[in-house]
Design brief:
It is an enzyme of class 2 (transferase). This protein is α/β, with parallel strands linked by helices and 460 residues long. It contains 21 helices and 13 strands. The protein starts with a helix and ends with a helix. The protein binds S-adenosylmethionine.
Length: 460
């Protein structure tokens, strides 16, 4: 592809992303799948430019508006990117927008004016508001500031970077050193992660699909933060575990592997299709102790039938995903899932229902990939108010029991942030159900107090 043809592909791709209510990475995969004639070098170049533009969405939009252009169309964003970020001069830009075969159409009068207005500027500008500079959408500013305090700018800046590529070794098939060796045979170089004892951080972003260590299930792609959430579950071989919001099974895999294939992990989710896809990953990893179980909702009758049956219940709740913005730069601008007003009650309902599955002495682990207090600490505090038979088990205690070294904990919770831990933003709280006999432990749950059962409980 010529440089101009690559630019046209970027414009087409950005247009599809704007018009398709699906995450940008899914749109990109489909775009390239439907255009197999685009070679791998061109594909990488086009995807990189498109991602670079998505990461600069607010700043490019601010300049486009300042340049007097009507709206931030894909073409206007590409023009602004070439001028402000790549520092191309107007002559080069005009040459690329030649209208020739495969090249972008010639510039309109309005676009020409925009080029003149933006030429010789850089992306940063002293008059640019902070929220634009750090790419914070309006809806997230208040909760992000409230949650991050004086770390707002530094965390938001870190969220603008591309995430590193992390792998989790499958302890059934490899240890970190043997996995590093296997990967290096495919010219993939990795080193041990700082916090997760199962993690490797890869140098660069090499494609892994064809690599034996990956195909043979020695390693799985998983952010170090996500690995730490699985470690916070601290499951033991032989235990009964539920992953209540298992989704594509990332944490289920880690939990099941920690159990050395012994015991049982029930992988639940309301999206049966996701669980089906996850089953393929479970097979590749050689894990036989996972049982997918689709739910109709968090109140599925299965929950009641299995109350107090499980040693560990992980709730990796649906959330704003603010901790994963490095990975999904478009997510902050495109509300593709439910908003906070729907997520907050849903998280509380899921937590409340999943808690019923936990046996006395067992643990409920509530986790999100959010950095917002309302979705994290506030949910846990509200839960503890109404579930007095649960207490917080400090993450430092869990790490000490697991001999996992120093935990990246702050207070009793796991609170990971990109700037401090170089992981995605994650939160996890470990809540233990009291083991001692009391009224509520004797078979009566707070949400279903029945006078007959209550009598039996008192007798018992
Ligand atoms: C953060 S994602 C889980 C990611 C997954 N644990 C992983 O590590 O790959 C949240 C999941 O919760 C699921 N979910 C949404 N509403 C739910 C509900 N009411 N009950 C159970 N799961 C639900 C979503 O379908 C989604 O897969």
């Amino acid at each position: 592809m010529t440089p101009a043809a690559r630019l046209q592909a970027v414009i087409d791709l950005l247009t599809e992303i704007d018009e398709t209510p699906r995450p940008a990475d899914a749109v990109m995969s489909a775009y390239f799948r439907n255009r197999r004639y685009i070679g791998s070098k061109d594909r990488t170049a086009v995807a990189q430019t498109a991602y670079a533009i998505l990461r600069r969405h607010a700043r490019l939009g601010w300049w486009i508006e300042r340049g007097g252009y009507e709206r931030p169309t894909p073409r206007a964003r590409v023009l602004a990117f070439l001028l402000l970020e790549e520092r191309r001069n107007a002559g080069v830009v005009l040459e690329m927008f030649s209208g020739g075969k495969f090249a972008p159409a010639r510039l309109t009068d309005g676009e020409l004016e925009l080029v003149q207005a933006l030429e010789s500027h850089t992306l940063d500008h002293p008059e640019m508001p902070e929220t634009v500079r750090v790419e914070c959408p309006d809806w997230a500013e208040r909760p992000m500031r409230a949650s991050l305090g004086d770390r707002f700018a530094v965390e938001m800046e870190k969220l603008l970077e591309a995430a590193p590529l992390d792998l989790r070794i499958n302890p059934l098939k490899a240890n970190r050193q043997s996995a590093i060796k296997a990967l290096s045979k495919a010219q993939i170089f990795a080193e041990e992660t700082q916090w997760s004892p199962l993690g490797l951080r890869v140098k660069g972003r090499p494609p892994l699909g064809g690599v034996d260590a990956f195909k043979d299930g020695l390693v799985e792609i998983q952010d170090e933060g996500s690995q730490l959430v699985a470690l916070a579950v601290a499951p033991k071989p032989g235990q009964q575990v539920v992953d209540f919001c298992a989704g594509a099974g990332g944490k289920t895999l880690a939990v099941a592997a920690l159990m050395k294939n012994k015991g049982r992990v029930v992988a639940c989710d309301v999206l049966a299709g996701r669980l089906k896809r996850a089953a393929e990953r479970f097979r590749r990893a050689g894990l036989h102790n996972i049982e997918p179980h689709p739910l109709t909702s968090e109140r599925d009758p299965w929950v009641k039938r299995h109350k107090r049956k499980f040693d560990r219940v992980l709730v990796d709740a649906p959330c704003s995903g603010t901790g994963t913005w490095r990975r999904n730069p478009d997510a902050r601008w495109r509300q593709l899932g439910p908003g906070l007003e729907q997520l907050l009650p849903l998280q509380a309902n899921i937590l409340d229902s999943a808690a019923r599955l936990v046996k006395p002495g067992g643990r409920l682990v509530y986790a999100t990939c959010s950095m917002l207090h309302d979705e994290n600490e506030a949910q846990v505090e509200a839960f503890l108010q109404t579930h007095t038979d649960f207490i917080v088990k400090p993450v430092a205690d869990v790490w000490a029991e697991e001999e996992a070294g120093a935990p990246p904990a702050e207070g009793p919770y796991l609170r990971l942030t990109p700037a401090r831990h170089d992981t995605d933003g994650f939160f996890a709280a470990v809540l233990e159900r009291r083991a001692e006999e009391s009224l509520s432990e004797a078979g009566v749950e707070q949400d279903e107090v029945d006078p007959v059962e209550l009598g039996k409980a008192i007798d018992a």
